[in-house]
Design brief:
CATH superfamily: MFS general substrate transporter like domains
Order of helices and strands: HHHHHHH
Subcellular location: Membrane
Transmembrane segments: 6-23, 30-54, 60-82, 94-111, 117-135
Organism: Oppiella nova
Strand content: under 5%
Number of helices: 7
Keywords: Membrane, Transmembrane, Transmembrane helix
Radius of gyration: 16 Å
Largest sheet: none
Structural class: mainly alpha
CATH class: Mainly Alpha
Membrane topology: Multi-pass membrane protein
Oligomer: single chain
Number of domains: 1
Helix content: over 70%
Length: 144
């Protein structure tokens, strides 16, 4: 299982780099449209994975998409907020990430089957599918 965790964090590292470059090139909103779709699909695939290889690879893709969604949402939030409120916005964004990690622990406590847990973890990503249509493209990206 430690191999799978290492592959997961390799996905986080590569996703932060890949989605960061894509967001700079094609826009934050377009990346934030693609990452949840790919992330949700790979998270659901990991819950139905028939073997360890598919589980690890789909977990790596999920991790890459989570990293892409996290940093893209952070950048969009920081770019929309004025100068004096940026620190607060960044802190609140990080606090919400920590709250999500705590909720994940509660989910893991109550959902004991790992396949069901993987599927339950994928469900909140489905809510992010509507976010790109609620927010406009980043003004700073449009200017650049």
């Amino acid at each position: 299982m430690s191999l799978c965790q290492s592959i997961f964090y390799l996905g986080v590292l590569s996703g932060a780099f890949i989605f960061g470059v894509l967001a700079d090139r094609y826009g934050r909103r377009s990346v934030f449209m693609a990452a949840p779709i790919l992330g949700f699909s790979s998270a659901v695939l990991s819950s139905f994975a028939p073997n360890f290889l598919i589980f690890c690879s789909s977990s790596a893709v999920t991790a890459a998409c989570i990293a892409g969604m996290y940093q893209t949402a952070f950048i969009i939030g920081i770019e929309f907020i004025g100068g004096q409120w940026r620190v607060w916005c960044g802190n609140i964004h990080s606090i919400l990430f920590a709250v999500g990690a705590a909720v994940l622990c509660l989910m893991a406590y109550y959902v004991r089957d790992w396949r069901q847990l993987q599927f339950v973890i994928a469900l909140p990503v489905a809510f992010t599918l509507s976010y790109p249509w609620l927010f406009p493209e980043s003004v700073r990206w449009q200017v650049s």
